[in-house]
Design brief:
globular, two-stranded antiparallel sheet
């Protein structure tokens, strides 16, 4: 590694140590520097990206400490990879399992893929499926899906199943689909399944749960997934609430790819019901914003400035922008003039 990059990584030592201390000093800065150096210089392309975008390398190094995940190649938990002109921290499905068990959300998890020639029977979301296969066979048929079994601290289990069609839909939302999805499809499929399962695992009060949340968010970023963990949390909170306008505002500030991915992110067996709820929330949100625009138009028609000002004062900046987008230029001018006068 060049002296410049070595010095750059060394400058992150204090921040690394502070983040690592919050995770009970799980890692050694000196060892992670060695592992990082090994991964960065393993090919010219990665090295050039690290040189050209040292800030992304800084972010990746600090994410290692924030999550408490090692780059040790023997563990196969995490890697530094070049993606879209940046160095990203990519966490394997084994790494996600390790962090999940550390967090106390689960005791252990196992991910298996299912092929056409396997014998497979789904036994429900809390009982392990019946799965019989010859692991040494060279002809198990085409991949048709997979499942994750997670043992809960209470003694029960949670089973998540994904079909190959669902896995491929996730692949299509990833900007990394031409790299790892081609070279390591099985590993990416397993990671997709465990990330889906994670959504259903208990939200423990343990602060270590933050490591798992951060790991999934970083994994999304590394894969270029259409939405972040924070967007997913906000979407689910708004979906469970009773504020159609807030739901519609999130719709307006989320790109089409991300919104479609969120809309399709519900667990198997709950999609139809929850999509219907999302459709209704969005419809009501649109109707409400249209109604606000109607109030302003009506107020302008009778020169009722007080009613218009009362409504405007209750709108957020984004809601006000959404309303004015429905108005004619002269109506916007009238609204702006009474706002300024007030």
């Amino acid at each position: 590694m060049s002296k410049e990059l070595t010095a750059f990584i060394e400058r992150q030592k204090d921040n690394f140590i502070a983040l690592n201390a919050a995770n009970d000093d799980l890692l050694s800065f000196e060892k992670e520097c060695i592992f990082a150096s090994q991964q960065i210089v393993k090919n010219d392309f990665t090295f050039k990206i690290a040189q050209a975008n040292s800030k992304s390398l800084e972010s990746a190094i600090l994410n290692i400490a924030a999550i408490g995940i090692s780059l040790n190649p023997a563990s196969q938990h995490a890697y530094l990879v070049p993606r879209s002109g940046a160095i990203c921290l990519d966490i394997s499905y084994q790494g996600l399992k390790k962090i999940a068990t550390d967090s106390g959300a689960i005791e252990w998890a196992k991910v298996e893929l299912v092929y056409d020639n396997d014998e497979f029977k789904w036994n429900g979301p809390t009982e392990s499926p019946s799965h019989s296969a010859d692991p040494f066979s060279e002809d198990r048929g085409k991949l048709k899906g997979g499942y994750c079994i997670a043992k809960l601290p209470c003694g029960g289990a949670m089973i998540e199943v994904m079909s190959i069609d669902e896995i491929n839909k996730v692949r299509e939302t990833s900007k990394a689909k031409n790299g790892p999805w081609v070279n390591w499809f099985d590993e990416m499929a397993k990671k997709t399944i465990i990330k889906r399962a994670f959504k259903q695992w208990p939200q423990t009060p343990n602060c270590k749960r933050d490591r798992l949340d951060k790991a999934v968010e970083v994994s999304h970023q590394a894969e270029g997934t259409a939405y972040t963990l924070e967007q997913y949390k906000e979407y689910m909170q708004l979906h469970a609430g009773s504020d159609p306008v807030a739901f519609y505002m999130m719709r307006l500030r989320t790109d089409e790819e991300g919104w479609n991915a969120l809309y399709n992110s519900f667990a198997k067996g709950e999609k139809v019901k929850n999509k219907a709820i999302a459709d209704e929330l969005e419809r009501e949100g649109i109707e409400t914003i249209n109604g606000y625009a109607g109030i302003i138009i009506e107020s302008m028609g009778v020169n009722d400035e007080s009613s218009a000002l009362e409504l405007i004062s209750e709108l957020t900046e984004q809601e006000y922008s959404a309303v004015t987008n429905l108005l004619q230029p002269q109506e916007i001018q009238w609204v702006e003039s009474i706002k300024e006068a007030a």
